[in-house]
Design brief:
about 0% strand, 434 Repressor (Amino-terminal Domain), about 120 residues, mainly alpha
Length: about 120
């Protein structure tokens, strides 16, 4: 289960509205909506901890691999880099989940992304 799904599930089980979660975790309603919809991930672990505290679950439970990666990127390269990575991962996830491409075409896209990565890595040396 992904980060946003975990928040939505636990919040619903507790009977807490998005507005109430936002207020109690000192976040904007829009942030909670973005997290639950999977459009964004928190830029730091403190936000995840606040949400976990309100929901009565550990922050480790809430995190998925994408959220961990975005938070790590923010710690290493700053909020702008984390925002860029979050948008990119979200776009890629939506692209692959959209159902418009065959599996063969999805494989081609993945190979192209992989080639871009390795070419850029070589260029930096």
């Amino acid at each position: 289960m992904e980060f946003g799904e975990k928040i939505r599930t636990v919040r619903s089980e507790l009977g807490i509205s998005q507005s109430e979660l936002a207020k109690r975790s000192q976040l904007s309603l829009r942030s909670i909506q973005n997290y639950e919809s999977g459009q964004r991930h928190p830029a730091n672990i403190a936000i995840v901890k606040r949400i976990g505290d309100v929901l009565g679950v550990s922050y480790e439970y809430l995190l998925d691999d994408t959220a961990k990666y975005v938070i790590d990127a923010a710690n290493r390269a700053g909020k702008d880099a984390a925002d860029d990575i979050d948008r990119l991962l979200s776009d890629i996830q939506g692209f692959f989940a959209g159902g418009r491409l065959s599996q063969k075409d999805k494989d081609k896209v993945m190979r192209a992304i992989n080639e871009i990565y390795w070419e850029s890595k070589e260029a930096v040396k």
